[in-house]
Amino acid sequence: MKKKVFVFFPDGVGLRNFAFTDFKSIGEQHGFDITYWNNTVFSLKDHLGFNEVKIDNHQIHPLTPIYSRARKRAELNVSQDKFNDDVYPTYKFPFNYIGVKNTLKSLYTKLLIGLYSSEKGIEKIRQKINTLERQNPKYAYCKAQLQQHKPDLIFCTTQRATQSISALLAAKDLGIPTVAFVYSWDNVPKAMQVVETDYYCVWSDHMKREVLQYYPFVKAEQVFVTGTPQFEPHYDTSLKQSRADFFKQYNLDINKKYICYSGDDETTSPLDQFYLEDLANTVRRLNAKGENLGIIYRKCPVDFTTRYDAVIHANKDIIKVLDPIWKPIGDQWNQVLPAKEDFKMLYNVCEHSEFVTNVCSSTVFDFVAHDKACIYYNYEQPQLKKGIRDIGQNYNYVHFRSMPSQDAAVFCTDKKDLDHLVKQILDGQLSNVAEGKKWYEIIVGNTPTKASENIWKAINVILN
């Protein structure tokens, strides 16, 4: 009898990893009966022909967001005290005091943080959230779906969505094993673990150590090191286009060498457009000295600002915009969903660019998978003023401490050095690829092509 697995999408962030890769077909080869338990507005049945059970009730208890925010802040306070480290307060978003409703919510959240900033307090907050979500109509709704379809296991594609809490509680209360995939390389130290499941799949041994360090209630045997499907497409050579075909498709100049500028979201890099401008000025100066360079600008898929427009317009002879093939199907950041065609585009942007530049993005790993270098900008812009976040704090975050050395990326710490660094990389005199590959292995694990396979093996172990 085939074991029935529900692959659960509480939001759209997991689609890229678990719907558009070979994850499903690999699971079927392992003999699993796979149904997608779908809380998103994207229809997997209509678009991909997959079996799905739609969750049409998207309610969460009105107090859950407040308690979740308090839980996150309390965890960061505990980490600050436990590890005697001032990096943790920098993960906190400011409170909102605009309007009476927001002010009351913020004051109540602060009260909860004051009461519960201890390991026992955090446990109480988690229990309170679970109590609230069991009272939420969505809990009964999801429980009824599970009783009808009787899956043998729930695989939740992200650990960080409040939308998943009631559904996973319903599964637990019915005795159905639950597994959560830790979604991103920086999530564990940032207190992003919203759900408690029976088991966890993580990218690497490094991430497993983090989970055990930050969440003492999780035992080592509950955590499976699997890798992430996120990077698997970079090893799928069927996606590769010839340089001529790729340049023709996107109207690029075949005689130019292109540098990829990978845009960031506004929270991470609020002055990101000025780093693009700096690169454009560098390209102009190097072209005046005999180079023939251009820039491929690939924006952050969830950035809808117009902040780059003036720079792109002023440098339209140099900058070619290749927007990620992502489609908004709602008005929230996590309702902007990738199209499968974006794998091919990203593969070929990495393959046919000389290297990538950005502010602290994980695209360093996408490009290292193609043996390409990465420049990280790490200097202040003159436009920085009070109230604008300095990008320098990003490099102090815990996940950057995983670098085997400072040579795992090329850091540009002064605007005046950019021309020289770009020229050195182009001339083959400077590269971070060797150290970058060591860092890639620390973060992504040592079997980057086998993540989907490893997850299904873990699920098999759990079910047996």
From TrEMBL:
Organism listed in the record: Olleya marilimosa
Protein's recorded name: UDP-glycosyltransferase
